[in-house]
């Protein structure tokens, strides 16, 4: 993958905070639930669910990056936190495409320009996963 294919909001090295609602919105799911959502998304998208950032320390959060402004189109259940345009600024950490980005990394591959997780599909999978966990 060449650097030209990677969006300009992905830092060249390390990781940086990015304001949500500008380049992307994000849906955050914690720990094994986030991994389960990602697993199901990957199965439904032939292994290309879109950009997903994983925190490998602390809460072990998984961040699903969706197109900017689309997070408010769905009612996200408890257990899924929405980061999008809001009254207050919300930032998430974005890792570089490669190199040392601890404690963040791209769960599959870094994104290419214009690539996002499908918000409607993500919402369906999150609802199914969280309802299954409660049942």
TrEMBL record:
Know the name of this protein? Uncharacterized protein
Source organism: Streptomyces beijiangensis
């Amino acid at each position: 993958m060449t650097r030209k294919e990677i969006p300009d909001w992905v830092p060249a090295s390390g990781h940086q905070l990015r304001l949500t609602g500008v380049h992307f919105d994000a849906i955050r799911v914690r720990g094994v639930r986030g991994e389960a959502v990602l697993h199901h998304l990957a199965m439904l998208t032939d292994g290309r669910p879109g950009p997903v950032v994983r925190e490998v320390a602390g809460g072990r959060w998984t961040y699903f990056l969706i197109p900017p402004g689309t997070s408010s189109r769905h009612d996200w259940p408890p257990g899924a936190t929405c980061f999008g345009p809001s009254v207050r600024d919300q930032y998430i950490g974005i890792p570089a495409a490669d190199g040392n980005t601890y404690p963040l990394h791209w769960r599959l591959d870094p994104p290419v320009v214009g690539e996002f997780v499908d918000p409607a599909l993500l919402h369906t999978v999150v609802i199914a996963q969280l309802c299954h966990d409660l049942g």
